[in-house]
Amino acid sequence: MSDTNELLVSPGPHLWRETSINRIMYTVILTLLLPTGAAIYFFGTRAIFLIIGCILTSLATEYGIKKLRKRPFRMDGSAVITGLLLALVLPPSLPVWMAVIGSVFAIAIVKESFGGLGHNIFNPALGARAFLTLCFPAEMTTWILPSGFSPDAITTATPLGERFVWEGSKAALYGDMLIGNTGGSLGETSALLIIIGGIILIVLKLIDWRIPVAYIGTVALFTLILREDVLYNILSGGLMLGAFFMATDYVTSPLTRRGKVVFGIGAGLITTVIRVYGGMSEGVCFSILFMNALTPLIDRYLKTRPYGLVKKAKSEA
Q1: CB of 220 within 8 A of CB of 275?
Q2: pTM across the whole model
Q3: How far is it between the farthest Cα atoms of the chain?
Q4: 14 in a structural domain
Q5: Does residue 16 register a pLDDT over 80?
Q6: CATH number for position 87
Q7: Which of 81, 101, 149, 215 is geometrically suited to a Cys-Cys bond with 243, CB 3.0 to 4.6 A?
């Protein structure tokens, strides 16, 4: 009712929060600065060039596409997140020009071709990573040891790779994977900082805890059933980054609580199957993209029942 006692009818939502799209995006960016800082610390200028290249290219591509579509360009932070996330899932040794191609693909094809923010089916950063993996398989599977700002790069295998060899104790290996002192993508190595950032987002209620818990829990359960090293599988690869920052994407994940649990379980199961039985050492990227494709189906069959809805009784013949 308004002050003039007139009944105002308007479409939902009718419950408002002070949180805006811009605030959400820039808060996510701030939390991503934790693994970003670790990437720069461990991989030096290589990380800086990739991160800057991906972010600037993402912004420029979105600006250009918006102009071509005659739509307003808004600095809402979504293009920055796409560029930053893409950089964090790339190998440190990847040439910057390849990362630029991936950034253009992420924005122009995966995001804007579907209508822009809120309409894309797949996570743009992961879609671009899958595209780069198909286009440049050798470069996307070449890893180097953390060397800080040293110009020397020593190639190595990631903890999930078949050629990975560790001469120390398992406790020392777990410690290095926790802080990020191992080979891998820029932002995938420091599990500890990713977890801290994810917990901040959960506490602020910017992401739902059900997806990361269901995702990580499923990987832990099935690796235990398959007699694999549970802690090793949880800390290695892109599981933490994918669970907290990729799978929880508002646009490409289910709307309902039950749907989020199904999404997390499905992604965890696919990740485990790819890691244990597949030809690829990592399955996070493709598992989340596959579940992105199933999200509309999950939303369709796991709808929230409207309050007070009662099923109509069948009439007797």
Answers
A1: no
A2: 0.87
A3: 83
A4: no
A5: no
A6: 1.10.3430
A7: 215
